[in-house]
Amino acid sequence: MTKVRAKKHLGQHFLKDESIAERIANSLSGEGYTRILEIGPGMGVLTQFLLKQPIETWVVEVDGESVTWLQAHFPKLSDKIIHKDFLRFDFSSIFGDEPYAVIGNFPYNISSQIVFKVLDERDSIPEFAGMFQKEVAYRIATKPGSKDYGILSVLCQAYYDVEYLFTVDEHVFDPPPKVKSGVMTMKRKDTPPDVDFKKFKTVVKTAFNQRRKTLRNAVKSLTFDHTPETEAMLGLRAEQLGYREFIQLTNALKL
Questions:
Q1: Where is the binding site for S-adenosyl-L-methionine, in residues?
Q2: Residue 29: closest CA among 55, 51, 48
Q3: Would you say residue 155 lies in a domain?
Q4: Which residues of the chain have pLDDT under 70?
Q5: Domain total for the chain?
């Protein structure tokens, strides 16, 4: 069987370097779950190393050609290949309430959407790891005060401990992307923040939609309790607040 053809509309860039794939697979701790879900396995360069681990591996793949390849080359997967779009599939229909880790070499064109879905499913996903466009991985891991700090930085760091691991050059992919890639991990915090996630997300997104303005101007569509702490935060710009301050601000939000 010939190799799978990389499809531009799916954002496919197949990793060729097996040592990098092994490092990504080994970035998972294996603690707190008994199943791993790989997104977009393609021809299985990462999958082969996941299957060596003492944890049940599942894969979700939207590309039918890749599914056929995986069925032919990884008989161990057999009934654990989900031919669906990760962004539109309800994994509780398979995993129920059981926790699972998520990993992958993520298509750059939907990587942010993947992170948002992981956040929505955070109660089921104690660990998340993989390869992104370098700028996206760096943005998620960066701290307040940086121009790269943004919505994903705040939301991810509120619920997970985020670590940027290493950078990957373009030439180890087929076809090579035009940008460098970055590998990062997110491990869920032992204690979730005391905040309503939907309100939290609204406050953070509203704040960064006009990031050059002070929060008082950027979030003027929202109303907060007037306290000295709130007033001090509203005098800053979004990139100057850590996730704890955003949680405090959200909890001061008036309905």
A1: 13, 15, 40, 61, 85, 105
A2: 55
A3: yes
A4: 1-2, 6-7, 11-12, 255
A5: 2
Of 164, 24, 15, which Cα lies nearest the Cα of 102?
24
Last residue of a domain, one of 169, 188, 207: 188
CB atoms within 10 A of CB 76: 10
182 shares a domain with 61: yes
Q: Which residues are annotated as a binding site?
A: 13, 15, 40, 61, 85, 105
Same structural domain, 219 and 158: no
CATH number at residue 245: 1.10.8.100
Domain that holds residue 211: 197-251
Phi-psi region of 227 (alpha: psi -120 to 50; beta: other; left: phi over 0): beta
Reported as a single tens digit per residue, the pLDDT across 39-55 is 999 889 999 999 999 99
pLDDT in tens, 95-105: 999 999 999 99
- 116-131 pLDDT per residue, tens: 999 999 999 999 999 9
DSSP label at residue 40: -
Tokens 């992307």 belong to which residue?
Answer: 177
Give the Cα separation of 42 and 46 in Å (integer): 9
Residue 14: predicted pLDDT: 76
229 and 120 in one domain?
A: no
